[in-house]
Amino acid sequence: MTFPSPSWRRRLLALALLAGLAAPALAQRANILFILVDDMDVELPQHMPKLRRLLAQPGASFENNFVSLSLCCPSRATTLRGQFSHHTGIFTGHWPDGGFLKFHRDGLESSTVATWLQGAGYRTALIGKYLNGYPNVEDGGRSYVPPGWSYWFSPNAGTPYNQYSYRINFNGRTLSYGKAPEHHLNDVLQAQANAFLRDAAKTPAQPFFLVLTPYLPHGPATPPPRYAEALPWVKAPRTPSFNEADISDKPRWMRNRTLLTAADMADIDAFYRKRRQSTLALDDMVESLVRTLRATGALDNTYIFFSSDNGFHQGQHRLKEGKGWAFEEDIRVPLVVRGPGIPAGRKVRQLTANVDFAPTFAQIAGVAPPEFVDGRSLVPLFAGPAPARWRQALLLQSPTSLEVVPEAGNPGSEAGVLEPAEDREAAAANPVWKNHLYHGLRTASNYSFALYENGDGEFYDLETDPYQLANRYKSMPPALKQALTRQLRTLRGSAGQALRNAEEVAVGRRP
Questions:
Q1: Which residues pair with 66 in a beta bridge?
Q2: pLDDT digit string (tens) for 294-321?
Q3: Domain membership flag for residue 496
Q4: How far is residue 165 from each of residues 49, 161, 275, 353, 492, measured CA to CA in Å?
Q5: Most buried of the four, 178, 444, 480, 492, by CB within 10 Å?
């Protein structure tokens, strides 16, 4: 009996995936490399030529990709489980509303995309940031490795956000790193990922699932020394919404914001420069990993995903810096994918989100995800005509409390490993938190709609107002307001297949 050549096996795999067939029946299943960066809005990848050349040009760019809750830990929980935050129960980065401690104690680690793929025979690896608040001395301690991971390399002490002076849990053994230039965390994670890829190539019959989660460009966004003096001329983009002139139409939590001062804008520019410098290092990371995959012969059989856990604003709507709101800067994130069967230069315009990653990885691996999953596989968007039915509205959710010094709210956690305090200065200025709690929709018809617990609302027609300058909630057509409100309530009350069905109802369709 003769067996298909590797190239034909790859073609068969791609056809099977696109047809929705079970991949394990094939001779060779695809590898998955998922690069999930931290706090990257969609503007920054425009300055990553290696990402464009190596992933976007030979693969697919998802042009309407979002996160449902724009905050690190809730987003990562959604990515691991394929559930919206009102089903994971993770709304912040710290106890009792979120963080590693809640995710762990609620038993959510028992069923994640890692456990599904490991159970299907994949060699699974996480290299980099896990969930905010990991580890916890009361729940496994520094040597704890969550279920589903065959290979673990994640900071467990020190100050990894600063890129120096941290410790790493390497498969249950702690390694220490100091302040030497070669200890810059991003470069250490890159080297470890390449080592994993080279080791995985020794057993090509076993596919791998590698989740690489660098801390950059999250603040303080310390770049490697080679880029510390780069880009001296750059400044944050002055979009039409930057230091917005009139915010009297905005929700109450925003109306007390004063115009940004010259000092504020200088701070924004300085931080933006560091984020851009950090982006150069992330571009190097993409190039290095692709080079290793090519050298080991695994590139043609590997899906590579590049995305971010949330977006980031810097000066838009008078908000100095941060995330967590329903504005496009916060919820829209990059997504590019290359891999078997994906045609070069493909543009995907359907509404996609972080809730879709887990079911996508499951389908690539030939695994049926649990019924609790809310998201949908992106595989049908990889090639061929668009599906007849797809999401028409994405549920948006807000954090449930301020991210203020979360170290103080997570018992047993290691200081410095948790998310640093966010500068959500607008919320801090008005402590009535119900003014900031919202649920909303981002629709395929380019509407942005949000309802606040205090009765405020937001509505933007993004086709005519892409920078969300004019809140038309009070003057929007009553029938459209009622329809969007009903859709929002339906999505909040649904789960699994029922939620996906409800998403496909086209509400507020344009004439």
A1: 332, 353
A2: 999 999 999 999 999 999 999 999 999 9
A3: no
A4: 31, 10, 20, 34, 43
A5: 444
Residue 481 in any domain: the answer is: no
The secondary structure of residue 55, as a DSSP letter, is I
Task: Return the C-alpha torsion angle 116, 119, 122, 125, nearest 10.
Answer: 60
Q: Residue 269: inside a domain, yes or no?
A: yes
Pairing of strands 352-353, 31-37: unpaired
- Could you tell me the CATH number of the domain that includes residue 272? 3.40.720.10
**Residue 192: which region, alpha, beta or left (left: phi > 0; alpha: psi -120 to 50)?**
alpha
435 closest CA partner among 411, 408, 401, 468: 401
Q: Is residue 182 part of a domain?
A: yes
What confidence score (pLDDT) does residue 12 get? 43
Alpha-carbon span 178 to 381, nearest angstrom: 44
* Helix, coil or strand: residue 170: strand
CA distances from 401 to 98, 135, 188, 255, 392 (A): 10, 22, 34, 20, 29
* C-beta of residue 286 within 8 angstroms of C-beta of residue 48: yes
Global pTM exceeds 0.85: yes
Find out whether 155 and 176 touch, Cβ atoms under 8 Å: no
Rg (CA), the chain: 22
**What is the longest distance spanned by two Cα atoms in the chain?**
76
pLDDT reported for residue 213? 98
- Reported as a pLDDT band with limits 50, 70 and 90, residue 421 is low
CA 164 to chain centre: 24
Look up the domain containing 219 and give its range: 26-385
Name residue, tokens 């994906």.
Answer: 342
Instruction: Provide the pLDDT for residue 411.
Output: 58
Q: Which of 35, 67, 69, 72 is catalytic?
A: 72
Which residues have a Cβ under 8 Å from the Cβ of 74 and sit 6 or more positions away?
85, 88, 90, 91, 92, 93, 98, 397, 399
Q: Is 497 in a helix, a strand, or coil?
A: helix
Give yes or no: 72 in active site.
Answer: yes
